[in-house]
Amino acid sequence: MTTMSNKIVIRVGSNNPVKVAAAKQAIACFYPGTEVDCQGMHAPSGVAEQPMTTAETKLGAINRAKYCQQTSQADFYVAMEGGVDHFDHGYATFAYVAILKGEQLSVGRSAELPLPAQVYQALEAGEELGNVMDKLFNTENIKQKGGAIGLLTHHQATRESSYTQALILAMAPLLNPELYITADVEGN
Fold first, then answer.
1. Is residue 1 over pLDDT 70?
2. What is the domain range of residue 24?
């Protein structure tokens, strides 16, 4: 893929260094030899600090990406929102990602990480996942490091690697827009 200039500008709907690094890594791989200006910014999610459903998590990512687009100038607006839910197979955490390029929005989701019941119960009681994991594993600010994923997988996966993979996959519609054109309401 080529770009009009030798610089790609990315704005990420978070100042969390893990999220900024994942966005830069995911998008830069499609633009080899191009300078990448990737910066985080505060972007409200419009959802709870700890989203507890799939729908709420997805909405949070989309809201953050749209906020970035409304308040800054960039080629790509990227957001990630971590959430949890209770599925028929158990409790799990995951992230939704949203990428805006112009008017085109692509939404993706990371793999699920099964959560212990005691962790999910603490989240239901109002705690945030990073804080629960810090208490459980005696760590500090794990959400800006390997995250629950790193701790529970013995560092074989990380929060950043999960976000990066989800963002790379979510780039598909933006890289091939002619294949992802949707029909109008009447199916034409």
1. no
2. 7-113+158-177
Indicate the number of domains in the chain. Answer: 1
15 alpha carbon, distance to own chain's centre = 13
**Max Cα–Cα distance, the chain, nearest Å:** 57
**Angle in degrees, CA 47, 109, 137, rounded to 5:** 75
The pairing of beta strand 7-12 with beta strand 90-101: unpaired
Residue 33 lies in a domain: yes
Q: In the prediction, which pLDDT does 142 show?
A: 80
Instruction: Calculate ∠ Cα 185-173-11, nearest 5°.
Output: 110
Q: Using CA atoms in the order 48, 54, 59, 64, what is the torsion angle rounded to 10 degrees?
A: 70
Q: Please indicate, yes or no, if residue 169 is contained in any of the structural domains.
A: yes
Does the annotation flag 73 for ligand binding? yes
**What's the pLDDT score for residue 4?**
54
∠74-147-20 over CA atoms, to 5°? 15
Q: Is residue 127 part of a domain?
A: no
Question: Is residue 50 within 8 Å of 129, Cβ to Cβ?
Answer: yes
Q: How many CB atoms lie within 10 A of CB 179?
A: 8
Judge whether 144 lies within some domain: no
